[in-house]
Automatic annotation (TrEMBL):
Protein name: Unannotated protein
Origin organism lineage: unclassified sequences, metagenomes, ecological metagenomes
Family classification: Belongs to the enoyl-CoA hydratase/isomerase family.
Pfam families per UniProt: ECH_1 (PF00378)
């Protein structure tokens, strides 16, 4: 796919996906949805990618849905993707689900306003860093709609139900300091320092860890948010330890530690991840 509304860059193991409609504050469109999903397909398939960073061009991260259609903006139900029954799929939800399924860690670099889908799409990212000029808003009730992009699942799990309901029910736009206090973002940085701080975390992951182990760990942590009992985690942990314990990565991890040298992990994410969730299937939309 030729990218028109995002910029894709890969440098030294870190892929950066930049929402790129700066004159529109990177307002979310159907094309942007498809391009983000295509870019994540690329990062999953490329073993040179160790970490993915999302950010926005210009002074905003994403100001929400493109409202240029006026009062008919939300009338068609969300996107050009439909179920077999003809129900329109929420476009923000398709992006959130794709981020959730990413095989690589995802870091949100919130460089400016992140409102509506501009904030909800960041919730399945593994963590978010914000500029001190960033603003956030779950403004759906002020637009006569409801939260989307799977945020009714992710937001309470990230910040707790009380904080989630306050932000959603009021629809207010709030500063980065409140996002930090509420647990929405990991840290707040001066604008000039923001990307460097995010890349430092990405480098720590890319330079020191086994990509297959990180990918499996990501799946384990996110999937277990919905587990009904710790036994589900115990089963996945046990299968994961068995599979990874006999891998070339495990041998290299131990030997490199004993030899006091940097590890060079041979296993590739693209070669396939062991199935440590037997019987688990992705729910269908109906």
């Amino acid at each position: 796919m030729e990218f028109q509304e995002i910029i894709y860059d890969l440098s030294d193991g870190i892929a950066t996906i930049t929402l790129n409609r700066p004159d529109k504050l990177n307002a979310f469109t159907g094309r942007m949805m498809h391009e983000v999903i295509a870019a994540l397909d690329m990062t999953d398939a490329d073993d040179n990618v160790k970490v993915v960073i999302f950010t926005g061009a210009g002074r905003a991260f994403c100001a929400g849905a493109d409202l240029s259609s006026g009062g008919e903006t939300f009338a068609k139900g969300g996107s050009d993707v439909q179920t077999k029954q003809g129900v329109p799929r929420d476009g923000g939800g398709l992006v959130s689900l794709r981020i959730f399924e990413s095989l690589k860690p995802v870091i949100g670099v919130i460089n400016g306003p992140a409102v509506g889908v501009g904030v909800t799409m960041t919730l399945p990212m593994d963590f978010r860093l914000a500029s001190d000029t960033a603003k956030f808003g779950f403004v759906f009730a002020k637009r006569g709609i409801v939260p989307e992009a799977c945020s009714s699942y992710f937001l309470p799990r990230l910040v707790g139900i009380s904080q989630a309901t306050e932000w959603v029910f009021t629809g207010r736009v709030f500063p980065a300091s409140e996002a930090l206090a509420g647990g929405l973002v990991r840290s707040v940085h001066a604008a000039d320092d923001l990307m460097a701080a995010a890349r430092a975390i990405a480098r720590e992951i890319a330079d020191n860890t086994a990509p297959v182990s990180v990918s499996l760990s990501r799946k384990m942590l996110w999937h277990m948010l919905g587990a009904s009992h710790p036994m589900e985690a115990h089963r996945a942990d046990s299968r994961g330890i068995q599979e990874r314990g006999k891998s070339a990565d495990s041998k290299e991890g131990v030997v490199s530690f004993l030899e006091k040298r940097a590890a060079v992990y041979p296993d590739k994410v693209s070669s396939g991840l062991p199935n440590i969730f037997p019987g688990w299937t992705e729910p269908e939309f109906s």
